[in-house]
Amino acid sequence: MIDKTEINKTLEIKSSSFNRVAFDLMEKIGMVESNHGEFTPEQKKRDYWLKLYHQCYKVVSSRGTDIQDILKE
C-alpha cells in the first residue's frame, strides 16, 4: 500500500504572530515612505529598518500604549 499526499494548488502558510504582523507592517510603511522602491540614503541604512521594525513590533504587541510615545523613541 502506497500512502501518497499531493498538493495541486499553491500552498501558503500564514502566521498572525506579533513578529509577522510587525514585519508586514514594516514592509508596507517602508514601501510607501520609499516612494515604492526608490530608497533614500537614510532608508538604505540598517538602523532605519531595525528602528522601523522595532516600532512596528511595539505597536502591534502593545495594548493601550499611545502610538505617539512609540514614535518619539
Properties at a glance:
73 residues, mainly alpha, 3 helices
Helix content: 40-55%
* Overall mean pLDDT: 86
Multimerization state: single chain
Poorly predicted ranges (pLDDT <50, ≥5 residues)? none
* Envelope shape: elongated
List the helices and strands in order: HHH
Distance between the termini: 62 Å
User: Describe the biggest sheet?
Assistant: none
The portion of residues forming beta strands comes to under 5%
H/I helix tally: 3
Structural class: mainly alpha
Q: Describe it for me?
A:
It is built from three helices and no strands. The protein has 73 residues and is mainly alpha-helical. Helix 1 packs across helix 2 (46-61). The radius of gyration is 18 Å and the shape is elongated. The model has no long low-confidence stretch (mean pLDDT 86).
Describe the structure concisely:
The chain is mainly α. It has helices at residues 18-33, 46-61, 67-72. It has three helices and no strands.
Helix-strand blueprint:
Elements: H1 18-33, H2 46-61, H3 67-72
